[in-house]
Amino acid sequence: VPPSNLNRDDTGSPKTAVYGGVQRARVSSQAWKRATRLAFSDLLDRSELGMRTKRLVEVLAERAIAQDETLSRELAYEVAGEALKDAGIKLKAPRVKPDEEQRPDETEFLFFLSNSQLDRLGRVISEVARAEDQKAAIKTATPKKIMKEEHSVDVALFGRMVADHTDLNVDAASQVAHAISV
To answer: Is 80 exceeded by the pLDDT of residue 4?
Structure first.
């Protein structure tokens, strides 16, 4: 790459590493993986890719509403939150500025799911919302099982780590190292 500041540290300075007793420029593995994921969006169909977000309740509710336009936003948020809690995903209230409108709960960390998984979970949420016994319907739908199937290309390639639920982890098919200048 040409001389540039590809990867910054928390102070805005180029990342570095000492190797062989000499300070060298460094680009983190995370930066390379992000660039690869962004390039995938130009090369692959959206359905083959994943999404990383803390706003999973909101994303799932929107997918459910797309499946069933009669579904109220409030009910979709409520059922999406319950489905995630059933899967063992912890939620918390998002930080909002005083002048901002309150948003639905968020996951504690970025969660990485395929668009296929999000669509399937959206269908489940729209079905559960219409059920008489929603708690039983969530148990039957097994949202956690959906999170373990049909991974996207980027999840399969780079893996997924869920510290609280190691059964949702996906082993990476590739290994990416930090690039260090010579």
So the answer is: no
